[in-house]
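Troubleshooting log. The previous structure file for this entry was overwritten by mistake, so regenerating from the original sequence record. Sequence copied from the archived sheet and checked twice against the printout by T.R.
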Amino acid sequence: HLDYRSIKALQDKTERFYVPLGVGSHLIRWGIKPEKIVELDWWEEIAIHDLTLIATPARHFSGRLFSRNKTLWAAWVIRGRDQRVFFGGDSGYSDDFKEIGDRYGPFAITMLESGAYNEAWAEIHMMPEETVQAHLDLRGQVLLPIHWAKFNLSLHSWTEPIERLLV
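Regenerated output below.
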């Protein structure tokens, strides 16, 4: 999630902000210097010291209320010399996970959402069983569930996401 307070807290603590296409204009409006912003399209990659950061597809939307989908949303591959990590962020399940796994897997760790889901939100949030399938599609070794037990956004119980994930 693009959070104003988090960006402001990081403003003086980071050299660069790597973001999906279109997000840079928000950061500039929030006081981030343009030279600190690098925007990436899906499948674009950039070397950062000994790491490569790759923007990959995710299935969600951007924006809130009346202004939607004016920026890209993304998941991220972090590729080191010997290991790879996948950060899925916020995404519904799609065949993109298989393509990402085929292109960049296997992953030492996959960080995938498992919470705040509802069958009506299948396009933007995964059910726990889909989280497990995405992990398998990505060829992950260790699954680190994220996006659960932070905000009460759905009708499921507080611990249901992790309980269903562990079954």
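The mean pLDDT is 88. Archived copy saved in two places this time.
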